[in-house]
Amino acid sequence: MIPAVLHLPIRAAASRHHLAAAQVAAIVHIESGGDRRAWNPEPSYRWLVDVRTGKPFRALTPAERVSGTPPRDFRCLAGDPDQEWGGQRSSWGLMQVMGAAARERGFRGPYLTELLEVEPGLEYGCRQLAWMLGRFPYGSGLDAVSAYNQGSPEMAGAGVYKNQAYVDKYLAALPQYLEVFRAA
Questions:
Q1: 56: which strand partners?
Q2: What is the CATH number of the domain that holds 157?
Q3: Which residues contact 155 (CB under 8 A, 6 or more apart)?
Q4: Rounded to 5°, angle at Cα 61 from 92 and 39
Q5: Contact, 120 vs 101, CB < 8 A?
Q6: Measured at the alpha carbon of residue 36, what is the angle toward residues 30 and 42, in degrees to the nearest 5?
Q7: Using 50, 70 and 90 to split pLDDT, how confident is the model at 138?
Q8: Does residue 183 register a pLDDT over 80?
Q9: 161 touches 155 (CB < 8 A)
């Protein structure tokens, strides 16, 4: 169970994005266990954003995909491009929102480490989840939950997602948060 101190900020962020607070809390539960300092570098992540435009960065070459250093044309808002390069390829905070996804959803803070704070982490995680729900409004929201975790709701077979273990964790966590947020 995530800490009760997170219930109010979860409810506020969920409400701003027309999401169910229980749904957001279940994702927080499985993504970070309620630890706002959660951080996960994902160096193979290839979907990057141009911080100047908020639009997708150009396609990476095969060498750039495996490189630990950014291409010369990859920009940052502060610090150096290495920080942005690593930050966009990491997941951050309570909802483990990818840095690139936060940039694409409008995060303009100079450093992606700001997503470790409760409010911005929930804000941009909720923006991403709401965007996924708009893009994949099927399967009683499970397509969007699957996509939140892996980018799209890819199926492994009839009624089974490629990331079914993630979807199952969400389905297991959801009832307890439905009860918590119904009682409040």
A1: 49
A2: 1.10.530.10
A3: 161, 162
A4: 10
A5: no
A6: 65
A7: confident
A8: no
A9: yes
pTM for the model stands at: 0.95
**Can you give the pLDDT at residue 140?**
80
Give strand pairing partners of 155.
161
* Cβ atoms within 10 Å of 112's Cβ, excluding its own: 28
How many domains is the chain partitioned into structurally?
Answer: 1
pLDDT tens digits, residue range 107-135? 999 999 999 999 999 999 999 999 999 99
Mean pLDDT estimate for the chain: 95
Q: Which domain holds residue 77?
A: 4-183
Q: Residue written as tokens 């990859």?
A: 74
Containing H/E element for 157? strand 155-157
Is there a contact between 115 and 97 (Cβ–Cβ < 8 Å)? yes
The helix-helix angle for 142-150 and 118-135 (nearest 10°) equals 120
| Residues present in the chain in total | 184
Query: Any residues with CB less than 8 A from the CB of 146 and at least 6 apart, and which?
Result: 136, 139, 152, 153, 154, 161, 162, 163, 166, 167
Instruction: Output the pLDDT for position 184.
Output: 63
- 56 DSSP 8-state letter: B
Measured CA to CA, the distance from residue 165 to residue 58 in angstroms comes to 32
Could you list the beta-strand ranges (E) of the chain: 39-41, 90-92, 97-98, 155-157, 160-161
Query: If we measure between CA atoms, which residue out of 93, 132, 126 comes closest to residue 111?
Result: 93
